[in-house]
Amino acid sequence: MISKDLLQPNRSLRLILIITSLLGLGIIFIGQHFDYSSFFFSGLSSKWSFIFNRSIRFLLNDNLMLLLIYALFYDRKYVKFGLAVELFGFFFLLIPYFILRYGFTINSMYISFIHRLIINPTLMLLLIPAIYIQKSKK
Fold it and tell me: Alpha carbon of 119 to those of 1, 4, 19, 45, 46: distances in Å?
C-alpha cells in the first residue's frame, strides 16, 4: 500500500512543480550559450556580457533548484536554507570567480572547476540528499 504522506499535500501541484523545475533546468542546460544580455543591453563588451549571462544562469539554475526542493519536501525552512546557500554561492563563489577571471592574469583552466561548481546548480543539488537524510532521521 502507498504511504499516506507520499507527496502530500497537493500531490498534483507538487508533481507539476517537480516537472516544471526539471524541464527548466534542462532548457537552461541546453541553451547554456544563450546570450541573455542581448535582451537587456546593446553593445555590451564581451566581459560584461559574460558576467551578466553567467549571473542570470546562476540565478535561474538555483531558483529552479529551490522550486524543486520546495516541491520535494514541501517545507519553507528548507527553501530558506537553500536561499541562504544561494546567497553564499553568489557572494562568496560567483563574485570571487569573476574577480579571479577578470581581475588577475590567471589561466582560466585553473579556475574552471569553480566555473562548473557555480554555473551548474551543484551546491543546491547536494542539498536534496542532505535534506532527505535529515528528514529520515527525525
Answer: 41, 37, 21, 20, 18
Per-residue pLDDT of the chain (138 residues; tens, 9 = 90+): 345 555 566 888 899 999 999 999 999 999 988 999 998 888 889 999 999 999 999 999 999 999 999 999 888 899 999 999 999 999 998 998 899 888 887 777 777 777 777 778 887 888 888 888 988 887
Q: In the 3-class helix/strand/coil scheme, how is the chain assigned residue by residue?
A: CCCCCCCCCCHHHHHHHHHHHHHHHHHHHHCCCCCCHHHHCCCCCHHHHHHHHHHHHHHHHHHHHHHHHHHHHCCHHHHHHHHHHHHHHHHHHHHHHHHHHHHCCCCCCCCHHHHHHHHCCHHHHHHHHHHHHHHHHC
Q: What is the distance between the alpha carbons of residues 106 and 130, in angstroms, rounded to a whole number?
A: 34
What distance, in Å, lies between the first and last C-alpha atoms of the chain? 22
Q: Which three cell numbers stand for residue 44?
A: 555590451
